[in-house]
Amino acid sequence: MSNRQVVVLGTASQAPTRHRAHNGFVLRWDNQMIMFDPGEGTQRQAILAGTSIARLSAVCITHFHGDHCLGLPGVIQRRALDARSSTNGLPDLPVYFPADGEQYFQRLRSATEFHDTSRVVPNPVVTDGVVGQIGDLQLTARALTHRTTTYGYRLDEPEKRRFDVAELERAGVSGPAVGRLAAEGSIITERGRIDVDSVSELVPGQSMAFVMDTVPCQAAIDLARNVDLLVCESTYLESEAKLAQDYFHMTAAQAAELAHSAGARRLVLGHFSARYPDNSVFAAEAGERHPDVVVASDLDVIDVPSR
């Protein structure tokens, strides 16, 4: 089983349906767990999905339409409850959100009376760029094009050094010497000076992007550039392209074209209009434009593709 997965909490846009909870996703990445856009009912969906709110490393909110944030009070209050029953408490929980929606964040944070031990740390996003560090993952935000201020997010792990086993053997480097070579950049052996670049190469780390509630735009392409996994809104089909444009959303075809243009490896579609009860219609439309499309259903667990 992969240690890097997306857990789908909900896939409904605007309003939940009998079979779709409000929009919501959790990224499990090794020892980090990042929640995106907790819609209404997130606390219960997390229980059904076996996802512990107490273990969250961060929360990222794209914008303050209700289907993307109404679950935040439950997340915060559940965390406060878990903190009180924990021997050592819980670490800080950064929450990233558009800065001009601070008033909505504060209202959601204190929506009811409760003993707040949640240790939530607001991180308002003011402009494009790197906005945080979650473990060794770098978090970048870019402004999208919607009816209200909306940010998409991207997570990148640092580049890694990959050693060539055959080159190491030719250089006579093995065991602890490999670690010294990686740390120091070069070592002296019986065969002379060995530079790390002669027996290895730097390769990009893996990456993931989250793009919700936008028309196709350059910022969305930039966020999705060469990611291993792109979670993208797919509110409508091409038959309702005019409606998508009017409400600043994407069709399944547009999401697939975005993924193709950006070179994203796997595309995960979500945020579906209730007018389409059958998920297969999104797969059919997007599959014509991108080779690896997963149409999310509530409580799905989707692997980040390995390399």
Would you write up a description of this structure?
With 307 residues, this protein is an alpha/beta fold. It has 2 domains: 4-159 and 204-303, Metallo-beta-lactamase, Chain A (4-Layer Sandwich); 161-200, no CATH class. It is 25% helix and 29% strand. It contains 9 helices and 18 strands. The strands form 4 sheets. The chain has a 7-stranded mixed sheet with strand order 6-5-4-3-2-1-18. A 7-stranded mixed sheet has the order 7-8-9-14-15-16-17. Helix 8 crosses helix 9 (280-287). The protein is globular, with a radius of gyration of 21 Å. The mean pLDDT is 96.
Fraction of residues in β-strands: 25-35%
User: What is the number of independent domains?
Assistant: 2
Alpha-beta content class: alpha/beta
How many DSSP-defined strands?
18
Q: Secondary-structure element sequence?
A: EEEHEHEHEEEEEHHEEEEHEHHEHEE
Q: What is the alpha-carbon Rg in Å?
A: 21 Å
Query: Which fold name is given in CATH as the topology of the largest domain?
Result: Metallo-beta-lactamase, Chain A
Span between termini: 14 Å
Secondary-structure map:
Blueprint: E1 4-10, E2 24-29, E3 32-36, H1 42-49, E4 58-60, H2 72-85, E5 93-98, H3 102-109, E6 120-125, E7 129-134, E8 137-143, E9 151-156, E10 160-163, H4 165-171, H5 176-184, E11 186-189, E12 192-195, E13 200-203, E14 207-211, H6 218-224, E15 229-233, H7 241-246, H8 252-262, E16 266-270, H9 280-287, E17 293-295, E18 301-303
Parallel strand pairs: 3-4, 4-5, 5-6, 14-15, 15-16, 16-17
Antiparallel strand pairs: 1-2, 1-18, 2-3, 7-8, 8-9, 9-14, 10-13, 11-12
Helix pairs in contact: 6-8, 8-9
